[in-house]
Amino acid sequence: MSAYHDLMAFDRETQALGQIAGRLGWDQETMMPRGATAQRGEEFAALEGVLHARRVDPRIGDWIAAIDAGSLDAVGTANLRHIERSYARNTKVPARLASELARVTSMAQGVWAQAREAEDFAAFAPTFEQVVQLRREEAAALAQDTDLGVWDALHQDYEPGSSGAQLDAMFGALRPRLVALRDKIMGADQPKGVSGSFDETAQLALSDEIAKTFGYDFNFGRIDKAVHPFSSGSGHDVRITTRTSATDPFNCLYSTIHEVGHACYEQNISDDYLLTPLGAGVSMGVHESQSRIYENQLGRSQAFTSYLYGRMRDVFGDFGIDSEAGFFAAVNRVTQGFIRTESDEVQYNLHVLLRFDLERQIIAGDLDVADLPAAWNARFEADFGVKVDTVSNGCLQDVHWPVGLFGYFPTYSLGNVYAGCLHQALRGAVPDLDAQLAQGNTGAATAWLGQNLQQFGGLRAPRDTIEHACGFVPSEAPLLDYLEEKFGAIYGF
Predict the structure, then answer these.
(1) What SUPFAM superfamilies does this protein's entry cite (predicted)?
(2) pLDDT surpasses 90 at 254
């Protein structure tokens, strides 16, 4: 076992350095002065150089070869599986490319933010072209000696074992029923929304309260503001961000609940896995299942919104909604809009499907960077029936492509599918769930998720993680059934 112990000790230090890199990213999006962008890029490149050298260290291969895999328990077997997979992938990427990717994507984030603010895609295009070319080079390297296409090779970093072909089939099943549901809703009377001005300090205070309600532990985390809400870290340091709007308090509150879902997954992983390959969420699809079930199936349920309605009236007074039923409908309004992160449950996946198709064209070289705004706008109008008015409402709205996260977007919809399955299983396990949520008590729901999924971290493969928690093979059917039942009741059909 000495080879295994040496391998795990070495990997623990690499995991710790990776956490430091993540903290640099958190700082860049929350606290870092705008003028530090170029220097931060150099810092990221230097740290990525160190990390890449460790991840391709020949001793890893020697240790793996010396380990008797049959002598390992389930945890050891899972650790070895993750390390072997990571080593095989990292040794295909040249150190020069890894450092350059870190430098350029760090710099690109700042350039994107300024171009987005200025509504100027042309100002961002040269930097984005660099990002795309580097990711294409990485994809070609990763696809070597495999049956993977270049986009699938990148996708493996976010959802191991998934493929574009599988996603095509799943999304093909999602799209017709989602479009039909949306069309029914758009033909119905629309519920009233909230009105008035909502104090930012009060929003943030209520946001903190709700984070605690959903189980977020502030002893091991913090909430800050960012343009694009996110969760960062694992183990004993898991930070989240949110954002505020003076006229839309749901932007803040539901961004917080969403990110708390991510953060609680990380906080609830067994301490036995701290700073090991098992000590973080197993995939982005599984991760998104936690954020989406917290935000939607729990946070936007009729039961929980009845509780939230009372708390919001306590904090903000009259905001134009005079009943719990009206508030439930307001929280779940389906309206035309451009922004994915502000989208309702019915249309959210259509935003993701748009990106899924476009990014595969970009990585394959079938869509040039210069042509992206026009391609985006045409596809958006076809899918949503609305012309895009600005690039900040179009292809510059998300930070993912600017920082090179190609292969990531479909995990959002995969997470929604997984959340639908988990919700069905949760309802069976906690029959009085609604009565508890109506009191603002999420304890049984979050405990079930912690016990059946979150504590295991990366122990199992992604789909196996969901199947273990649910007791059945995941499919899109539970999500679609849930959406049709919920929104049919709200809109009266």
Answers:
(1) Metalloproteases ('zincins'), catalytic domain
(2) yes
Note whether 390 and 116 are within 8 A (CB): no
- State residue 122's pLDDT score: 98
Is 288 annotated as contributing to ligand binding? Answer: yes
Full-model pTM:
0.94
Looking at every residue in the chain, the average pLDDT score rounds to: 96
Q: What does the DSSP assignment read for 260-272?
A: HHHHHHHHHS-GG
Chain region(s) in the chain for CATH 1.10.1370.30: 164-491
pLDDT at 108: 95
Instruction: Using alpha carbons, select from 302, 371, 291 the residue that is nearest to residue 122.
Output: 371
Would you say 204 and 253 are in contact if contact means Cβ atoms under 8 Å apart? no
Residue among 215, 205, 239 nearest 26 (CA): 239
5 annotated ligand-binding residue: no
Q: 126-147: string of b/e by CB count within 10 Å (b at 16+)?
A: ebbebbbebbbbbbebbbeeee
In this structure, what DSSP letter does residue 293 have? I
Look up residue 13 and give its two tokens.
């230090």
Structure confidence by residue, pLDDT tens digits, 360-397: 999 999 999 999 999 999 999 999 989 999 999 999 99
> Do 288 and 416 meet the contact criterion of CB atoms below 8 Å apart?
yes
Supply 150's token pair.
């270049």
Architecture of the domain whose range is 164-491: Orthogonal Bundle (1.10)
Residue 468 in marked binding region? no
Alpha helices in 365-442 (DSSP H): 372-384, 410-429, 433-437
- Type and span of the H or E element at 238: strand 237-242
What are the φ/ψ torsions at residue 228 (nearest 5 degrees)? -120, 110
CA distance 326 to 313: 13
Task: Give the C-alpha separation, 241 to 228, whole Å.
Answer: 8
Of all residues in the chain, the percent with pLDDT exceeding 90 is: 96
| Positions marked active-site | 259
- For the four alpha carbons of 150, 396, 174 and 471, in that order, the dihedral sign comes to positive
